[in-house]
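The following block was generated as part of the benchmark described in Methods. Ligand: adenosine-5'-triphosphate.
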Amino acid sequence: MGKTYGSGHSAVHALRGIDLEIHKGEVVMIVGPSGCGKTTLLFVIGGLLSPTAGQITVFGQDVAAMDEGALQTYRQHTVGFVFQGFNLVPTLTVLKNVIVPLLAGRGVGPAIDRGRMLLTEAELSGRDESFPAQLSGGEKHRVAIARGMANDPPLLLCDEPTARWMVRPGTPPWSG
Ligand SMILES: Nc1ncnc2c1ncn2[C@@H]1O[C@H](COP(=O)(O)OP(=O)(O)OP(=O)(O)O)[C@@H](O)[C@H]1O
Ligand SMILES: [Mg+2]
């Protein structure tokens, strides 16, 4: 599988000849220097970018062949994404940020209940009504992880998950 940004002289071959098989239940760490293509790979697996060569199959689904509707469903139910820069919505409270992925699928009440539960797990239960700008870097990261887990996705993609914060020493955030 490959991903090239741009074309001609400005082409950047971010991924070339990636051949990777991951089995259900595995925790896989992708390690490499800055700019080597880690984020690009996670975006392709997460259906946020299309590969420019080859195929990507997740739980038997051909992600590159999905139309926009199928991609939306895939992003909502199959993958959770924790972004390198967190991508929290600055105008929404912590709780609202966490429940954004839930609102399409359930009523507001159950979404809030689940959001509060996730924030308790992330040891942020007192910060529901704070805004992202009022949090530390690690706290924002925990909110982003809680949001990524909101729909209890079978696949959680975390970009730089250990850069700032871990749930408990030795326990990666996706293990629970
Ligand atoms: N939208 C884009 N347009 C052009 N080139 C891009 C784009 N996004 C990323 N790149 C380039 O693709 C390569 C891979 O970038 P990527 O963000 O995947 O790396 P990374 O391994 O996640 O880096 P880091 O550890 O710094 O986060 C880099 O050379 C980067 O400059
Ligand atoms: Mg990156």
